[in-house]
């Protein structure tokens, strides 16, 4: 297979997956021009990571929920509740910062167990359970905080979302440590891609030609190192980016390499076939929501750390941003389709659009309309692809 033929097959085989990366590059390019380069400035790139990290974390869990054929409307309220729990433990009762984090994670897991039970074992649709959860956990947040905000957190807690790792290896005008970490990550990515390619060859699956494969790796390396260099010129490597990177790697492995991940796709793709194949549907659905509660708690810790406090209105509308990120990133409205990396790109598209429009001084109401249209077009594109595939068969 020639490089041209391989490239054509990649685009025709999965237009939605390929198109999202093209759309992301186009949107970044557009807003870079419209903001006179401010979008890609070192300080602004750092701010994008800090400001939208919790949405990226929520999008990881949300795409798994959607792949399984469900939806979760409660994650914003869970972010508020877990952040409030941490604030009560640390600020009000004077416990160490890490005790607050553990308390928040415990509450997130309990929320996941609660919602997973009603969805998996009672059989109530996730839409209803999580809609009830959105109201229930928001009310609990108001009760816990007594309708007032709590702040500030200790400096150690604030570093979760606002801290940086830098200066370990020196550098003149940039942080060498940030570039070294990026380089190590790229080596791991290249090895993983090569092993995946070899596995597909062993199973006689179609792979792109080696020149195209190398070109893809070089392009990824160039983009990542350029991004890392910009971060290194600002404040170095954000701690929250390390947390996010670990979560992305872990959940990519979970969804693509584990039995649980395959069962989630099977349930979302064809529930009857999954049941006939011996998939323990109730258990899988239960753990999908436990996992969502866990990730919502992490997002709650990050958000409360970023805002240096807990507010009754925290997490408002976060669930819509996470759902939009999953759908824009390639998840299907009917389940069974989606990827963690796609959800990350979808979340970054939302982040770049919001940040770019804010730099341009565009009114908040217009920003909401633009994001709504983007989500609508993403879902329309999903439906178009399904009809096109059905017609081809």
From TrEMBL:
One GO molecular-function entry: transmembrane transporter activity
NCBIfam families cross-referenced by the UniProt entry: GguB
Annotated function: Part of the binding-protein-dependent transport system for D-xylose. Probably responsible for the translocation of the substrate across the membrane.
Spans traversing the lipid bilayer: 20-42, 48-66, 73-91, 97-117, 124-145, 165-191, 212-231, 237-254, 284-305, 344-362
Entry superkingdom: Bacteria
GO cellular component terms, semicolon-separated: plasma membrane
Upper taxonomic lineage: Bacteria, Bacillati, Actinomycetota, Actinomycetes, Micrococcales
Membrane topology listed for this record: Multi-pass membrane protein
Identification of the protein by name: Xylose transport system permease protein XylH
Species of origin: Sanguibacter keddieii (strain ATCC 51767 / DSM 10542 / NCFB 3025 / ST-74)
């Amino acid at each position: 297979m020639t490089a041209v033929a391989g490239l054509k097959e990649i685009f025709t085989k999965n237009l939605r997956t390929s198109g999202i990366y093209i759309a992301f590059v186009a949107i970044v390019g557009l807003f870079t021009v419209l903001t006179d380069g401010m979008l890609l400035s070192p300080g602004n790139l750092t701010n994008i990571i800090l400001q939208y990290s919790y949405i990226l974390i929520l999008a990881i869990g949300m795409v798994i929920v959607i792949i399984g054929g469900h939806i979760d409307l409660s994650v914003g309220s869970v972010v508020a509740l877990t952040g409030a729990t941490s604030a009560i433990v640390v600020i009000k009762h004077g416990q160490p910062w890490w005790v607050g984090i553990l308390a928040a994670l415990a509450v997130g897991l309990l929320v996941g167990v609660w919602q997973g039970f009603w969805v998996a074992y009672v059989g109530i649709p996730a839409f209803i359970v999580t809609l009830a959860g959105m109201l229930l956990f928001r009310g609990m947040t108001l009760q816990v905080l007594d309708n007032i905000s709590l702040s500030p957190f200790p400096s150690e807690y604030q570093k979760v979302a606002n801290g940086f790792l830098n200066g370990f290896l020196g550098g003149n005008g940039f942080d060498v440590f940030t570039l070294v970490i990026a380089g190590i990550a790229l080596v791991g990515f290249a090895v993983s891609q090569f092993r995946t390619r070899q596995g597909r060859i062993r199973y006689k699956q179609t792979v792109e030609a080696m020149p195209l494969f190398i070109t893809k790796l070089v392009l990824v390396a160039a983009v990542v190192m350029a991004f890392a260099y910009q971060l290194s010129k600002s404040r170095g490597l954000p701690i929250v980016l390390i947390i996010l990177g670990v979560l992305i790697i872990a959940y990519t492995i979970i969804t693509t390499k584990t039995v649980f991940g395959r069962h989630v796709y099977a349930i979302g793709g064809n529930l009857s076939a999954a049941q006939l194949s011996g998939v323990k549907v109730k258990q899988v659905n239960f753990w999908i929501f436990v996992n969502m509660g866990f990730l919502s708690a992490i997002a709650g810790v990050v958000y409360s750390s970023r805002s240096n406090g807990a507010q009754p209105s925290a997490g408002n509308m976060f669930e819509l941003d996470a759902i939009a990120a999953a759908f824009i990133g390639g998840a299907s409205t009917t389940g069974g389709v989606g990827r963690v990396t796609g959800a990350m790109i979808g979340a970054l598209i939302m982040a770049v659009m919001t940040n770019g429009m804010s730099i341009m001084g565009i009114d908040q109401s217009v920003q909401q309309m633009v994001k709504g249209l983007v989500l609508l077009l993403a879902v329309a594109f999903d439906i178009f692809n399904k009809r096109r595939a059905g017609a081809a068969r």
